[in-house]
């Protein structure tokens, strides 16, 4: 019963097999391997973007931080949600790789920026001329850190605000596959057709060992990314092992199948928890994360049985009355089983 994170799951067998197959003979380094050529072609096909430029890195933090660095100047403002991953979980990497750009936090329920809040935030920046940071760019997380998703129309509303100020847009898609499955949108509809300039396309949280693609829809920005990736220490010599993961991930729609399994497990878990008296959802369950509150007694039974998950926020105490509700984050992965969900729900019910 491990719901701590989709990062804790095993890699998909198809990905492991691809790595083993790649581990023979010799291959050119630094992204010049033959597999990377196929990956590039496949991602262009998936996104209906024949001119897109594609690069691979090993971590989501690198994908995000390097992407932000090519979209804004050091004196620029990066507009993101208050609970965005770039704000809460990347230890200042965006500021470091942009050489000082400032994250400006935007409000919105369930970790979703609203066009109104974004417009207000952008309007406020730069009012003092050279005495302030300048308007730089916007980054959107999809799926969000609270397990909700943006539909293409919602993405377009945000990019429309950004475009009104002449700002480029990045999408943090660490769980992009989960958002695509949840909305039924095509990858193109979710990204460049909705006004996104650069996408961090996640693999690690959805069955890969460690690979993320950066898809740059404007090839004019590509050269700078190449230089920043090398300068930042994220250009792999034995790049074929990144390429092999991504090729397997994209083959026969594996990335969508794995995300569909994770989303379905979260939906089952959400339904099971809502059947518990005094349980409620803190955020809508739209992708593969469940944010729910349920009685402390259920938490005690689950933790005594070895279930792994996080109280959210983490400063809540396990000391106190049994019937007090404590909130938790539970994340399902491609490998979460129905038996795990049922066993956990049974413990919460008591």
Would you kindly provide a written description of the structure presented here, covering whatever features stand out?
The chain has 350 residues and is an alpha/beta fold. The chain folds into 2 domains: 12-252, Aspartate Aminotransferase, domain 2; 255-349, Aspartate Aminotransferase, domain 1 (Alpha-Beta Complex), CATH 3.90.1150. Helix content is 40%, strand content 16%. It contains 14 helices and 11 strands. α8 (176-183) crosses α12 (254-274). It is globular, with a radius of gyration of 21 Å. The mean pLDDT is 97.
Question: Which fold name corresponds to the CATH topology of the largest domain?
Answer: Aspartate Aminotransferase, domain 2
Report the major sheet.
7 strands, mixed
- What is the CATH architecture annotation of the largest domain? 3-Layer(aba) Sandwich
CATH class of the largest domain: Alpha Beta
| Number of continuous helical runs | 14
CATH superfamily of the largest domain: Type I PLP-dependent aspartate aminotransferase-like (Major domain)
Protein topology:
Layout: H1 13-22, H2 34-46, E1 53-57, H3 60-69, E2 76-81, H4 85-88, H5 93-97, E3 102-106, H6 115-124, E4 134-141, H7 152-164, E5 169-173, H8 176-183, H9 187-190, E6 198-202, E7 212-216, H10 222-231, H11 240-250, H12 254-274, E8 280-281, E9 289-295, H13 296-304, E10 310-311, E11 325-331, H14 338-349
Parallel strand pairs: 2-3, 2-4, 4-5, 5-6
Antiparallel strand pairs: 1-7, 6-7, 8-9, 9-11, 10-11
Helix pairs in contact: 1-11, 2-11, 6-7, 8-12, 12-14, 13-14
